[in-house]
Amino acid sequence: MRFAAILPLLTLVVVTLLMRAQPPAPKPGSVEGTVVNSASSAPLRNASVWLESQPGSGGTAHNITTQSDASGRFHFDTVEPGLYAIGARRDAYMNTQGRYGVPAPFRVAEEQQVTDVVVKLVPLGVLSGHVFDDDGDPIPRANVAVLRYFYKPRGRQLGATALVQTNDLGEFEVLNLPPLRYYLEVAGSPIQNLPLHTRWTRHEEAYPITFYPNVRQISEATPIDVAPGARISNLDFHLREAPAYHLRGHVAGQTASKQEIFDQLRVDTPGTRFGAIYQAGLQPDGSFDIPGVANGSYDISYTQSVHVADADVNGLVFAETPGAQVSGTIAVEGSRPNSLNIYVALDPSKSASGTGGMSAADGSFHIKSAPMEICHLDLRFPPDGYYVKSIHLGDREIKDGEIDLTNGASAPLNILLASDGGAVEGTVQTADGQPSAGTEITVAPSDEYSGRSDLLKSATTDAAGNFHVKDVAPGDYRVYAWEIDLDQSPQSPEFSKLFDAKSAAVSIGPNAKASVQLHVITVDDVARERSTLP
């Protein structure tokens, strides 16, 4: 009985001692601040604000959100000690996940009250105008495309970022445009509800593709620079009808039962992706008739080009082909990794959609239907600790990342991995000598291999402005530090070369390490140099 009475007391003593042996849980802090318009500094209400713990912060990874009040203020209670990134979202403003205007990551100590955090949201722009005919009457249902240059490893490429139509008053408005340089392209409304193969008793006329301000070639167009929050109006077009013609032909092998495979033909201005101006459906027998096409050169789906010169273009034939067959192997120099599952991607130069395939466990891969044109090769998800040492199409080394599949793959594609890569590390400072945290780092290969996107490495600086990039293939590189997330622009040698004076040149040997000190390339630096580009 006495033992039974003592047992609960002993248990209580043991539990008490264990609790005393454990360190007390860290006491939380708090974070508060304001969301403002970056252009006007006005506070923004009803913004969704997020606070996210960063790797290596020492606390439990978590993400918490709140809303800014009528004065733009926000407050986070019960924030565990650690390193945090903060951002916000609101309609008609850029998403700060791109790090545009986002404060650098900061640390919250135990019971610390972090105050006066300012999150700047960049307002999006608006373009508006009218499309009139030569008599000043509005043209309804005119197609208006907003174009911009995208910078990629193989160079710049013109593409559409928005497509709208004019209303019955000829008005158009394009919303939510990030601050960039744009071009406007207009085509008159298509001829509606005509039976296939209709032929007019008079010469047909249509509104030709026109660029702002009323020119026929993109090289003559006036660029429109959209500043943060800009509302640019009176972008008016005055279109004059011109003789128009038809593009006629058929898709070989197309039947009504296979309509879902290819049921639209797209006609684009040369060199422009995702910006179709003319579009027509196929008939059950695979034939097509695209009316209203003025003189000029055009790219048509299936990567064929045509030139219209005062006459209809008849007899176009698009053959349904399975595409190029691309096969090859991924080999390893030295010890093999546990997995060789690398995605081999092919990005076509003209077609809208790319393709690719994952390698098997033994390193072999087979892509059944690659676009039959020049494609850019991108090798994704190489195993940790390895880099792509070389790429060969048969006996020819692919140094620029471009593979010509116009006539199919001429030989097997052989990829060699190696594990003796080097590393680049360093620090980034702001103009006033402070650590530049949350900065995007790119390590870009030399000119000879500048098209090899698999050789381009990236990282982000920590709270102290430090970074470390591993698995760098031996060779010559330039290292850049960007204040702003630039989508794919740093992958373009044409773009990044503008900032060589703010970069550092490094040479990496096998298993070697290079250290650099950089100053951040600011948002203003980027905007200033962008103004020199098309």
Topology:
Blueprint: H1 2-21, E1 29-37, E2 48-53, E3 63-67, E4 73-79, E5 82-89, E6 106-108, E7 113-121, E8 125-133, E9 143-152, E10 155-165, E11 171-177, E12 181-187, E13 205-206, E14 210-211, E15 224-225, E16 231-232, E17 237-239, E18 242-252, E19 264-268, E20 272-273, E21 278-281, E22 287-294, E23 296-300, E24 304-308, E25 313-319, E26 324-332, E27 343-348, E28 355-358, E29 364-370, E30 374-380, E31 387-393, E32 396-397, E33 402-404, E34 413-418, E35 422-429, E36 440-445, E37 457-460, E38 466-472, E39 475-482, H2 493-496, E40 504-508, E41 513-519, H3 523-530
Parallel strand pairs: 1-7, 8-16, 8-17, 10-20, 18-25, 26-34, 35-41
Antiparallel strand pairs: 1-4, 2-3, 2-5, 5-6, 8-11, 9-10, 9-12, 12-14, 12-15, 13-18, 18-22, 19-21, 19-23, 23-24, 26-29, 27-28, 27-30, 30-33, 31-32, 31-34, 35-38, 36-37, 36-39, 39-40
Describe it for me?
This protein is mainly beta and 534 residues long. It has four domains: 29-121, Immunoglobulin-like (Sandwich), CATH 2.60.40; 125-318, Carboxypeptidase-like, regulatory domain (Immunoglobulin-like); 324-418, Sandwich (Immunoglobulin-like); 422-530, Carboxypeptidase-like, regulatory domain (Immunoglobulin-like). 6% of the residues lie in helices and 46% in strands. It has three helices and 41 strands. The strands form ten sheets. Strands 9, 10, 12, 14, 15 and 20 form a six-stranded mixed beta sheet that branches. A five-stranded mixed beta sheet has the order 29-26-34-31-32, with no helix packed on it. A hairpin with a 6-residue loop joins strand 27 (343-348) and strand 28. The longest helix is centred in the first third of the chain and has 20 residues, at 2-21. It is globular and about 90 Å long. It starts with a helix and ends with a helix. The mean pLDDT is 83.
